[in-house]
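User: Show me a protein chain along with its predicted structure.
Assistant: Here is one chain, sequence first, then C-alpha cells.
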Amino acid sequence: MWTEERLDTLLTNPSSALIEDMKKITGDIMILGAGGKMGPTLSLLAKRACESAGITKRIIAVSRFSDPIVKKLLSDHQIEMISADLLEPGAIASLPKVENIIYMAGKKFGTNGNEYQTWAMNATVPSHVMEHFKDSRIVVFSTGNIYPKVAIYSGGATEETHPEPVGEYAMSSLSRERIFEYGANTYGTKLAIYRLNYAVDLRYGVLYDIAENIMNDRPISLESPCFNCIWQGDANEVAIRLLLHADSSVFRLNVTGPETIGVKETALKLAKKLGKEVSFVGEESSTAYLNNASKMTELFGYPTVSINTLIDWQAEWILSGGRSLGKPTHFEERKGNF
C-alpha cells in the first residue's frame, strides 16, 4: 500500500496556488541544509512547481549529503546539488549568489554535551550566510520552541508572543533569528522567519513517535498533553510561497496545523489501528508548546491533509514496514534538553 516512491510523490505534488506563486518568484532558489528531514522533498517540490508553471529556475540544494538515499532521490530528479559543510571556513563564501534562499540548516538533537556545536551551527553559520546573501530574499526556518509553554486551551502562541526560550537549543534558535534580523535592519535584506512545530512525513514526526512507542510496548508520556502538527507537503509549500512575503521589516509566521491535538486521544486512535494496547505515564500538565496558525491559514489556506487522515496514514505506514528516519521529535520534552 505504501512505498517510499508513493510517499515522496504525495509530498512533492505542487498545488495550483504554489504553481501560480512560483511564477511570481523572480530568480533562482537555493536551499541551505537541504539534506535534512524536510529539505529533499522541498527541493523536489520546488522543481516540480517550476515544471508545472512552465518556467525555468535553478533549484540548488546545498548540504553535506551524508545520506545516500537523499542524494539518490535528488540526483534521480535532476536537482542541482552542491556538497558543502557550512561550518567549514570559506564554504558559504564559495556558494553562488542567488535571489532566493530557504535557510534550513540547524542543529537540535545531540545538543546536551555538545552545546558548542549547536551554537556554532545555529548562531555562527547564520552570520556568514547573512553577510554573503544580504541582497537575497531569505526564508529562515526556526521553531516554536522559542515561545513559552502556553495554556492548553489558549489556542497557542501567536507571532506576537514574546519569546521565552528554555534550554540551549531554543536559545540558539532565537539567536539565529536575531542574527538574521540584524541583517534585515543593517542591510535591508528581505526576510521571513518560519516558526515550525511539527511537520509529519510518516518517516518521522510526532505521530511516528507515538506509534513507534505503541508498537514497542512503551508507555506514552502525558506530561505534554497536546501538540500541533502539519503534513510536510503543506509545510514545504508554505516555505516556498513565503519568499513572496519576505521583507526588510521581517515577516514572522507560525507554521503548523490549526488543531490542538490531544496526546492521549491520538495514542488511543493509533493503538486501535495498529491492533495494540497502549499505556500511559505521567500527569497531564495544564501547559504545552503550542503555536497559533491562524495567520498562516489566512494567508495560505487550511492544510490539505487533515489530522485524522494523517493518523490513518501513519498507522498504515508502520504496518507496511515503512522506513524510519531515526529522528524523534522529543515533542514531550519540557525542559529544553535535546
